[in-house]
Design brief:
2 domains, 16% strand
Amino acid sequence: MRKPLSYGMYFKSHKKSSLAIMISIGLAILLIGAIQLYTFNMNDSDARNNEKYKYATLVYKNKKALDKAVIKKLENEASVERVVKVESFRYMIRSVFGTDADYEGFYADENDIKYMINKMGLKFDKGSYIKNGDKKILINENTARCKNASIGSFVGYDVRRDDYFPGKYKVNGILKGDNIVSFIAVDSKALEKENYMCFVFPKKGKMKEMNKYINSISKDGIKNSNYESLQKEEINNLNGFNTIFNLVIIIMIVVMSTVLGNSSYISYMRRRPEIGILKAMGYTKEKIVLRMVKEIAISSLFGFGFGYLALFVFAKIYNVLYLYPRGIALFLITWDLFPKLLSIPLFIAIFSIIPVSRLLEKVEPISIIERMG
């Protein structure tokens, strides 16, 4: 037997309005989820540039070469496995918003490059190692896709204005993964003529101990970049931007929830005869509200499922057609998304149930039955 105020019964007779509410909830979840994916992606893009610092710490002096005494101290430190002389260069790749993102590569001796590639767990997708002075370069696969470069292509400021390193270098190898780093091989003695810096690699399990020592000698102009400090810096830099985005998302959630809650309220206004009959049959206000809560929960559940599926499809299609071909960090749907997504059906329920419960107080079963008669 079909129950009074049954959701299935109502859905069959009001398919359009029920589907409209579900689709509206789904589209709201898709919109909020998509905005949040963009903010997460921006954070991921910055984090990829710091990936190399999970394996080593960069020690340097602004506009000056490191003193040999400092390098000697680092080499003699018990927690240090190897000190690699490098000089940095910069190049640009696109971010998800179409703006330029600044990434870092390194000049280093050919033997040191082999060591760094091994320590960072990098693997070749194509090509092979480079030799000192051969005017060749190793780049990451994401950089290659962004620049539409392949083995044999040329990069450098002479051929591309988004490469901030002078000269023209032939791509000799493409490295796999999201550790966005590039290498050019030069003799270590040539580095000493420049404002060189050092990549300091720890012994196994000694990263914290090594960084503690490096921090202790980071004075008199000596500075260092390690993964933990860089991540904190990125978070601080993005805090203002993320706060604005979060405020926009909260406002959108409240506005959408209010609109959809009002739609739900209008739907129940049309069902006053049904509600009046139930009250005349002896149904209490609490019982009727509980049934309404079940209806709203079912609509929200189907709407949430539709929205989440639409968001998943959107992320996959956007990854394949736009982000991956351009070497940009991919959209990832994580558990961090769920609190904001779940708040949409929750707010809709609140904005629906409160006015509907007030509606119940105004419904007079006798006058409704008389009108129906």
